[in-house]
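Quick start: read one record
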Amino acid sequence: PNLGELAKARDIYRKAIAMLKPVAARSPENQAARVYLALSQAMLGRSLEFSGNSPDGHKLLEQAARESTLLSLKWPHDFAVQFGVTIIWYWWARSLATGSGFFVTAAGSTPALAAAHEAAKYGEAALAMKPHDLEALRALASDYGFRGYVTATTDIPAATAFFRQALEVLDGIPQVERSSASARQARANALLALGKNLGHLGQHPEAIKNLEEAHQILDALATLDALNTQAQLELVVATSSLADIEEQAGANGRALA
């Protein structure tokens, strides 16, 4: 429980950490205990940052990232380890990018991009072992998208390549899984990011094409579950973004006429 129940989620993470710490200390070869301990620390750190306790959350994420690097070196050929390390480094990168707030800023862009690069390295290692794993593909696509958002704080044109890479990664999802809600959500997010980026660059036809597809996917997902407030919110964002770009394209067309 995390969405809407942050206090309960933090209690669960703290209990998990309290249980796993002595096990990992007693048995350094216990892979599962060490991986789940690092993940629990990262999730607690993420939750604390989300609720406004940035210093403690940041510290926990840093500790988890440091420990996860050791895990990756100790078990380099284990998919679960490399995938777990990917997730931890992704959230550490987000922490670096947002600083003490909630939004990505240019201030932390350099360390955040370096951390995101590390996350991608572990993600690619995981995919080398399971090339068509849906969750690993989604994680790597999220990392590329995040790198795009961070890059865009200082260089919007340079961000485009990262947003395109996110979509290319998702093209690796097996056909049989592409209709799943999680795969469709990931594609919509990538399309939305690329569409908004292209819109900022004045590349309106391609921007509109991407945003229309994102809107169609999100509309279908929101229709499936009318009580899913996250899906409804994302649909609003997609609708607004599409309307903005269409208005810009129309204004440019009228100016050229």
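The mean pLDDT is 91.
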